[in-house]
Amino acid sequence: QQQVKQSPQSLIVQKGGISIINCAYENTAFDYFPWYQQFPGKGPALLIAIRPDVSEKKEGRFTISFNKSAKQFSLHIMDSQPGDSATYFCAASRGAGNMLTFGGGTRLMVKP
Amino acid sequence: GAVVSQHPSWVICKSGTSVKIECRSLDFQATTMFWYRQFPKQSLMLMATSNEGSKATYEQGVEKDKFLINHASLTLSTLTVTSAHPEDSSFYICSARDHLAGVEQYFGPGTRLTVT
């Protein structure tokens, strides 16, 4: 059973546009929600993470929006750049540093 | 800081042989390390959780006798794929948790295993 559902599977955005990726979770025990960026042939790298006690967190061009009642969270990439082209994964865990359950991933392509 | 390395970065082995993959935390101590497998264009699937000095905890469907995990020190965990078969070909990624900071997992760069 996939506990974290991610959409869309792929996304094409023009340079300068906003990329939006959504995730929904089922397990209400999850309390830590990170987003990872992965380039081909590389391991995932943490972008930004949020806990359910806040509804939004921003770091540079990356923003997480969190809706606890809907059990949904999303990643917004502002002013998307070609260098942002990668696969993005949302994840969830019960406590930071514990076992992560990953979403299915979104392949983002930012066109120049 | 918080660097995790894996060795080798890629390996090709023949069917029926065993291959060992190392995961090291370079600048922190990791009481817990995680091993993931990722097939092409798919997500990461947790294989097992490795705790220093104790037996690993395997996820459902992962054969513990086939994927041997050893976490003998606070900076090193190894995954041995025994009697490898072509269907074991995958991208294996480890992550480590800094037991002092305790707030994040740091991922290694991955190991590409190809079984011929």
Provide the fold topology.
The complex is a heterodimer of chains A (112) and B (116).
Chain A: E1 4-7, E2 10-14, E3 19-25, E4 33-38, E5 45-50, E6 56-59, E7 62-67, E8 72-77, E9 86-92, E10 101-102, E11 106-111
Parallel strand pairs in A: 2-11
Antiparallel strand pairs in A: 1-3, 3-8, 4-5, 4-9, 6-7, 7-8, 9-10, 9-11
Chain B: E1 4-7, E2 10-13, E3 19-25, E4 30-38, E5 44-51, E6 57-58, E7 67-73, E8 76-81, E9 90-98, E10 105-107, E11 111-115
Parallel strand pairs in B: 2-11
Antiparallel strand pairs in B: 1-3, 3-8, 4-5, 4-9, 5-6, 7-8, 9-10, 9-11
Explain what this protein looks like in three dimensions.
The complex is a heterodimer of chains A (112) and B (116). Chain A has no helices and 11 strands. In chain A, a hairpin with an 8-residue loop joins strand 9 and strand 10. With 112 residues, chain A is mainly β. In chain A, 32% of the residues are buried. Helix content of chain A is 0%, strand content 53%. The mean pLDDT of chain A is 94. With 116 residues, chain B is mostly beta strands. Helices cover 0% and strands 55% of the residues of chain B. Chain B has no helices and 11 strands. Chain B has strands at residues 4-7, 10-13, 19-25, 30-38, 44-51, 57-58, 67-73, 76-81, 90-98, 105-107, 111-115. The radius of gyration of chain B is 13 Å and the shape is globular. The model of chain B has no long low-confidence stretch (mean pLDDT 92). At the A-B interface, strand 5 and strand 10 of A face strand 5, strand 9 and strand 10 of B.
